[in-house]
Amino acid sequence: MLEVKNIKKTFGSLTAVDDLEFNIKPGEIMGLIGQNGAGKTTTFRIILNLLTPDNGHVLWNNKYLTTETFNKIGYLPEERGLYPKVTIENQLLYFAQLRGKKKSEIKPLIDHWLEKFDVKGKKTDKVKTLSKGNQQKVQLISTLIHQPELIILDEPFSGLDPVNAELLEDGIREAQANGASIIFSSHNMNNVEELCHSLIMLKDGRPVLNGTVKDIRQQFGRTKLFLESDLSHEDLKQFPGVKQVEKTSDNIDIVYLTDTEDGKLIFNEATKNGYIPTFSQQPPTLEEIFKRMAGENNE
Q1: DSSP string, 31-85
Q2: Which residues in the chain are classed under CATH 3.40.50.300?
Q3: Which residues pair with 245 in a beta bridge?
Q4: Is 22 helix (H, G, I), strand (E, B) or coil?
Q5: DSSP letters spanning 218-267
């Protein structure tokens, strides 16, 4: 289990991370979200011992991280780094050896991983001959091929099309099923909502949201109502607590409420003649919460 205990990191007068604490158990996925400059990459670098915190500490299975521990980590940095004149195979072997693996352990796995991520190229091809998307997949493979127990992914979905993003999601879920502890940052809230059990949102280095995705959404209340009925927009706007009414492309009204309880009166009126096709009160999406917490003008 990864434990981050009350870490703080300053750079001169700038506080990059302040009073951050969380843990990730085996088989759990945690999302770390926030605006650019919120402290996400600094947090990753502290976990990896690339930066020393001013206060607090990081533990893996109740012990400080050692060289042996780092061999069990897979890290994908935001700034991708491959050697363009080196073949795919030699690249993967090299990075695996840095994690304490032998060539004889990794070489038989390469074809399987290239097929798993649908890399368009032969293992004997030099990296510079690959498209950017395929280069990114090779870097992802180098992060996962040694079967790490802790996986840190800094903006892993950046630049991936939907098909390749799904391949990455499958790879993350497979690592989770094998018991890995996984933490990743992303500006795509759909990825976070689909993959993560828990999340932390940083703002100016401090955690402003911390908990399971479900609990965080629920704490903002079921104030988003999806409705398909005979009530018109003008009818809906007259109800107490209605802030805004929109209509989707498939003719469903979206009603934004001040409070969850405001939906009851609308439900009673909409169903007074019996069945209606749609009535669903939902909490705001993670993206809507992100914008609310960050401040839309700043995002």
Answers
A1: EEEESTTSSHHHHHHHHTTSS--SEEEEEETTEE--HHHHTTEEEE-SS----TT
A2: 2-217
A3: 255
A4: strand
A5: HHT-S-EEEEESS--HHHHHTSTTEEEEEE-TTS-EEEEESSGGGHHHHH
Compute and round to an integer the Cα radius of gyration of the chain. Answer: 23
Domain 2-217 has CATH 3.40.50.300: yes
**Distance (Å, rounded) from C-alpha 149 to C-alpha 173?**
13
- The candidate with the shortest Cα–Cα distance to 143, out of 130, 156, 133, is 156
Q: What is the dihedral of CA 194, 199, 203, 209, to 10 degrees?
A: 110
**Distance between CA atoms of 203 and 290, rounded to whole angstroms?**
10
Specify the DSSP element, H or E, that contains 286. helix 286-294
Fold of 222-282: Alpha-Beta Plaits (3.30.70)
> In tens digits, what is the pLDDT along the chain, a chain of 299 residues?
899 999 999 999 999 999 999 999 999 999 999 998 899 999 999 999 999 999 999 999 898 888 888 889 999 888 777 888 999 999 999 999 988 899 999 999 999 999 999 998 889 999 999 988 888 889 999 999 999 999 999 988 887 888 888 888 998 999 999 999 999 999 889 889 889 999 999 999 999 999 999 999 999 999 999 999 999 989 999 999 999 999 888 889 999 999 999 999 999 999 999 999 999 999 999 999 999 898 754 44
